[in-house]
Design goal:
The protein has 311 residues and is mainly alpha-helical. Helix content is 81%, strand content 0%. Helix 4 packs across helix 6, helix 9 runs antiparallel to helix 10 and helix 10 packs antiparallel against helix 11. It is found in: Cell membrane.
Length: 311
């Protein structure tokens, strides 16, 4: 009977691993087919991702509609999340979930109450560390939206930093070929997929609606705090005021940005060296010494010249 139970358990886990393997194969084939269909039918991957984001935002709004009831309370209890700070975070993160300041403020209070309810429930059920849960769960619920939105801001600005050198080179090449700035931006952003496309697509839309170019540039500065991106936009504003060729501005900015990236890589490499030394000193070296000492002890006890053979 015991052998049958063991065989059943082994067969179960074998089937689970087999299902995971085939599911992974299915996902890989699905991505391949979707990529092929996108190439054949000339579907823009950016538009497909944007559609998915909109669907996720609509679903999130339906789920969090009860947070609006706590909006007034959330605006009064605004520790680490005053209204102007939340508005800036939403603007610089691209607001992928289409949140308003009021709903964000209500959401943190709503999650605070959910955390408090879960803490009380854990005490009733008698879960381990329940006395700590009733304190930490509400705090976690309150700070989760703040942490997530700030992480989204940082992630988006890093993506802009990564795509900016290639974007600058491509636009500069187009401008040197005699293409106007507006036309170059419209064509070049089609080959990018990320925040930098979102920003310049919105910039082009504002220009089409009659917004002055300088004001559209100022809006770009307000939506992004990336130093390299701000340097580019300020250079464009200055070039527009002083009459400096735009192609030259893009070329200079691209060269400067690559130089900055090289210096950052060197700085990270210099910071990594002491960390590697610490790992080697406190982890690898002691383990190596213990292995050598263990082999020596085993040889002394069990080898041909062991101490037991001497008696």
């Amino acid at each position: 009977m015991d052998a049958l139970i063991i065989l059943t358990i082994i067969a179960f886990w074998f089937c689970v691993l087999l299902c995971i393997k085939h599911f992974g194969t299915y996902l890989g084939e699905k991505r391949s087919v979707l990529s092929h269909v996108s190439t054949v039918t000339d579907i823009d991957p950016f538009e497909r991702k944007k559609k998915k984001k909109d669907q996720r935002a609509n679903l999130f709004q339906k789920i969090t509609k009860y947070a609006d009831d706590f909006a007034d309370l959330g605006q009064r209890i605004n520790f680490f999340s005053e209204n102007h700070m939340v508005e800036e975070w939403l603007r610089k993160s691209g607001n992928p979930l289409k949140l308003t300041v009021q709903r964000f403020q209500g959401l943190k209070i709503f999650l605070f109450i959910v955390g408090l309810f879960l803490g009380i429930l854990s005490i009733i059920v008698g879960l381990p560390f329940s006395q700590y849960m009733i304190i930490f769960n509400p705090l976690i619920g309150y700070f989760i939206p703040i942490i997530l939105i700030r992480r989204e801001v940082k992630k988006r600005q890093n993506l802009i930093r990564e795509d900016l050198p290639d974007f600058l080179d491509t636009v500069s090449t187009s401008l040197q070929a005699g293409v106007s700035l507006d036309h170059a931006l419209r064509e070049v952003i089609q080959h990018f997929d990320g925040p930098i496309r979102e920003e310049f697509s919105r910039f082009n839309q504002e220009i089409d609606l009659g917004v002055t170019r300088e004001k559209a540039y100022r809006e770009l500065l307000q939506r992004n705090d990336n130093q390299e991106f701000q340097s580019l936009i300020k250079g464009l504003i200055q070039g527009m005021d002083l009459g400096i060729p735009i192609a030259k501005t893009f070329k200079i900015q691209a060269d400067d940005l690559r130089q900055i990236r090289q210096e950052q890589v060197k700085e990270l490499a210099a910071k990594a060296s002491p960390k590697v030394t610490l790992v080697t000193t406190f982890l690898i070296a002691p383990v190596s010494i213990l292995m050598i000492a263990g082999l020596m002890i085993l040889n002394m006890l069990m080898g041909e010249d062991s101490i037991f053979n001497m008696f």
